[in-house]
Every structure is written in C-alpha cells, then in structure tokens.
Amino acid sequence: MAVFPRFMSFLNTGSAEASRIATASVTGVAAAIQALKKRTPPVHFLPGLEAPAELSDTAQVELAAAGPWSAARLRETLRKHLQGDRVIVLANREPCIHERTPSGEITILHPASGLVTALEPVMRACSGVWVAHGSGSADREASDSRGRLEISTGDASYLLRRVWLTEEEEAGYYYGFANEALWPLCHLAHAHPIFRRSDWIQYQRVNQRFADAVAAEAGCEDPIVLVQDYHFALVPRMLRRRFPRATILTFWHIPWPDAERFSICPYQQELLDGLLGSNIVGMQTPQHCRNFVASVDRTLEVRVTREELDVVRQQQTTLVRPYPISIEWPDRWGASLPDAAECRARVCADLSLPLDTRLVVSVDRMDYTKGMEERLLTIERTLEQWPQNGPPLAFVQVGAPSRTRIERYREFGRRIRSEVARLNSRFGRKNYQPVILLDRHCEAPEVFRLYRAADVCYVSSLHDGMNLVAKEFIAARADEAGVLIVSRFAGAARELNAALVVNPYDVEGVAETVVKALTMTPAEQRERMRALRAHVAEYNVYRWAGRMLLDATRVRQRERLHVRLAGRARRWSPDMFRR
Ligand code: F6P
To answer: I need a labelling partner for 508 at 20 to 30 A (CA). Which of 105, 162, 204, 526 fits?
Structure first.
C-alpha cells in the first residue's frame, strides 16, 4: 500500500532532488580537493561500490514484519543500515545531572523530562553521542576536560558531551527565548509569548555554540545528527552550512501551532529557515506537520508536495513527517516493581493514608500547560459528589519543580499550593488530607510505584505534544488494572483511544468521568488496559527511533548514490578537458 505514494513522491521531488544533489556533489568535490591539499581526506566521501543498495520499500516492509521493535532490533537495524556510522543526538536536557548536595556529596538526578525518558533507551541501543547543556552544579567535576563522560548501563554505553553555558547565555537562550517565547507560542494555554531581542541574540549565539559542539563530535563529512526540540531551531541550518552532506533529522517534541499564531513571532523566518536545514523534520502528530508546512508556505519561498508534505527550498528537500514518540517497552522500572498490592501498601504507608483509600494520581512538571488548576477544580467537584460513607478518596499530585527562575512558573506554583491548601481545608478532616502535593523531584522508581498503586491516573494537559506520563502509567500496569483518563489536547489521546478521553476545561464533565473511572468494573478495566498495553508495546520508542532512522537511511543512501553518479558524470564531462 505504502509503496505507490512513496514512489510518486520520489518522482515529484526528483528534479529538485537531482539538482540539489548535483550542487552538493560539487561542494563535496571542492571539499575533497581542499582536504587532499591538507592531507586529511574526508571520511565517507564517495563510498565504495560495496556500499549496500538503497533500502527498498520491500526491505522496509520485511523489517516491519520482523516482530516488535526492541533495543536489540534497533541496534541491529542501525548496524545493518548505518554501517557503524555514529549517531549524534543534540538535546538541551542531559540524561543525568550531577548535583552537589548541601552536605558536600555528589548525587545524580534523572530529570523529569519526556524527552529524556524517550531518548535515553535509544542512546543505550545505538551507543552514540549525546550533546547537552551541562546544567548540574557538579557536572564539571564529573566530566573530563572536554566535558565528556561515558554513561554505561549494563552492557550498553554511550557518550555524554556537556556544553557549558554562562549565566547570561542560559538566561537568554533557555529561560528567555526557549521558555518565555517559543514555549507559550507553541502551546495554547492562556500564556502570551514574550519576545525580547536580547533573548533572541542569546538564542542565536547558543545555537551556534551547540552546533560547534556537534561539529567537534562529528568525525566525518556526513554525520548523522538528531536535533531535538525547540531549543535548537537554528542548528540544522548551521550544520547544513558546515556539512552539506550531513543527514540531519530534527524532532519537535512540542505542538506546532497554526500558521496564524506562529506568524506573531518576529523571528519566524529565521526559525523556519533554520529548521529547513534538516533532511527530515519530525512532529508528534499529522496536524502539527500540517501546521508547520502551512507556516513555511506562508512565510518562505518554497514548493510543497501535498501528498507527502515534502518542502523543497533552494534545491534542498525537507521531509515533514509524524513520528509519535513513545517509551521503552518493556519498561525497566515497571519490570522491577513489586505487585500492585505491595505498591499500594507502601504508598499508603508513606503518605499516611488508610489502605482502602481510592487513589487518583497525576504526575507532571509544574507547568501551566499541564492543566493543574483545571484539575484542582475537577477534584473539588469530585469530592463534592463522593459519598460521605464511601472509602476515603485521595488525589496525589507529583509536581516536579521546573523552570523556577521564570516568574510565571513561580507564580503558578504559588497558585497551585494555595489551591491545594484551600481544598484540604474544605474537605480535610483530622488525619485525612484529600489532596497531596509532592512538589519535589521524584526519581522513576517512586513514580512507577505510585502508578502501580493507583486506581486512576489523570493526565490533564491543556496542550501537549505527546505526554509520556500516559504511556508510563500503562507500562506500570502489568496487572491490567487501573484506569487512564487523558486530555484530548495531549498528542497521546490520538493513539490511546481505549483510555477515557476528556476535555480538561469541562470541569463537571471530567468530575463525572473520574467517578466513572473509580467505579469501573475490573473486567472493563482489564479490557481497556489490555488494548492500551498492546498499543504501547507495539508503538514503543524503539519503533519511533527506528522509523525515523530508516527514513534517514533512505535519504542518506539515495544521496550517496546520486553523489556517486554525479561524480561519474563529472569524470566523463567534456568540460573536464577545457582549460
Ligand atoms: O516537551 C518539551 C520539553 O522540553 C521536553 O523536552 C521535556 O520533556 C520537557 O519539556 C522538560 O523541560 P525542561 O527540559 O525545560 O525541564
């Protein structure tokens, strides 16, 4: 089925592709001559004839039929199709943060980040390099003089390359432009973006610094780089200038807003041009892809092929594709947990709750896009309806501190804490607090224990690219019990239709759904949870990475082939004999 449209799209983009490749080959030849003069031949230039043929559609279908994606299958796929070429991941957030505690010891934190949850297992499978901001107070001590550190877990290891930022750079690039401009621009959640020129200047400068760090790790003329998220919209173009033959995949983890909204950004042209330095731009959903292409179409001179959403600009093609992100499966935290009864006993003991308490859990960073205020109103309605003589009902909210240097986030935290206090004073009794806010960092084993102990997990995002909490809850429920309620404005709702899907703004409606979830029969819970688990097991993060990298491989192999053919054509051109 998929073969024909792909073939058509190849034809559609063929001529532009060919001229782009011809240009790239000329640039490549010039680079090779330069390099030969310097006696440093570039790696991978004009690969030998023993290079494998392009991965055909049939081969892809065969691969797809090879059972579920796993770490081993991803590793094998990369070995076979990338022939050992190293994958470089660029993501602002690092997989582990070294912090010095007040008592002087160094402790390791694993950040609350969907991006880290998804990428870390992929890196373990492909043993590449992860370039990230070194944000921990003891990160420098834990790394070598080049900011490098080997991360090894079990039999797998990869390299972390930390980039150091000054206070001023971090303030302008991360807190300012990324999180006060782009974050509210892309999320529809009552927050207006703030575009400061000074933040934009830092964003450009820091993007260049990260592009330089990636270049330093490249080790060849055509590196494979996976650029992650809205922190690095300019990096793909910066890398493309430096490595015309690089394979650059950019994945945008958050929503892409509609074109009208995006157009309020004073730097829209530069951002879009930066992203179009990529061979592939990945989004969470088809709608985000369409929004992105619409933004590009109304802002830049491009040609768009509508069937496949390929953007052709200045003889370079960027494929725009949905790759819904996921989690590892089986999940290593879920696999090491005790059974649900034991988890519940431990959670109830830790939180001083009676064992028969009905538990509703939510796990978020403290962020205004997560719908926590609307959720607290829902909790209020639910507690109003809950029978006085029924079992105790408790809502446990993990709220990991996030971006607290931004006043909007601090103010948000204050509002949440005061709402929780209000609800507890209205509904609480001696030895009973119905709303428990854990506003601290919780490591994965604690979070997974909570998931497995819960009756219900409620994900209430007002707008979210995916939301991996929903998928983690499913992974934790090997007992096939528990009910997931998920906001229809989270990307996860598109896939997880066996969950109860709600509109988080509809406070009364969600309260009714919470009661429905708390009273759902074990048989219905099992039926829904089985379907959800089957979906996440199949659509796991190895599949996400595998599909993206296979698409990248096809682009890469096609490009190498064209470079080779263009090189031969050049050998026989009459122009070659002209003086
Ligand atoms: O979803 C967007 C994102 O940046 C993810 O990369 C990550 O899960 C989350 O937000 C965490 O944000 P931060 O890195 O700012 O703590």
So the answer is: 526
Q: Are 243 and 201 a contacting pair, CB within 8 Å? A: no
* Residue 38 φ/ψ, nearest 5 degrees: -85, 5
- Ligand 1 atom showing the smallest separation from residue 228 Cα: 6
Q: Is the dihedral of CA 335, 340, 346, 352 positive or negative?
A: positive
**Atom nearest to 466 CA in ligand 1:** 1
Give the N- to C-terminal CA distance of the chain in Å, as an integer.
52
Ligand 1 atom with the shortest distance to the CA of 92: 14
Ligand 1 centroid, distance to 115 Cα (angstroms): 6
What is the best residue among 89, 90, 115, 325 to mutate for testing ligand 1's pocket, by most ligand atoms within 8 Å of CB? 115
Q: Which residues of 371-388 are buried (b: 16+ CB within 10 A; e: fewer)?
A: bbbbbbbbbbbbbeebee
Question: Residues enclosing ligand 1, CB less than 6 A?
Answer: 93, 113-115, 229, 253-254, 365, 402-403, 465
Per-residue pLDDT of the chain (579 residues; tens, 9 = 90+): 333 333 233 223 333 323 322 333 333 333 333 333 333 222 222 222 223 334 444 455 555 556 789 988 988 888 888 877 889 999 999 999 999 999 999 999 998 888 888 888 888 888 899 999 999 999 999 999 999 999 987 778 899 999 999 999 999 999 999 999 999 999 999 899 999 999 999 999 999 999 999 999 998 999 999 999 999 999 999 999 999 999 999 999 999 999 999 999 999 999 999 999 999 999 999 999 999 999 999 999 999 987 778 999 988 999 999 999 999 998 888 888 999 999 999 999 999 999 999 999 999 999 999 999 999 999 999 999 999 899 999 999 999 999 999 999 999 999 999 999 999 999 999 889 999 999 999 999 999 999 999 999 999 999 999 999 999 999 999 999 999 999 999 999 999 999 999 999 999 999 999 999 999 999 999 999 999 999 999 999 999 999 999 999 999 888 888 778 877 665 544 444 333
Strands 106-109 and 129-133, by their bridges, are: unpaired
Q: What pTM was estimated for this model as a whole?
A: 0.86
Closest CA to 465 of 430, 506, 493: 493
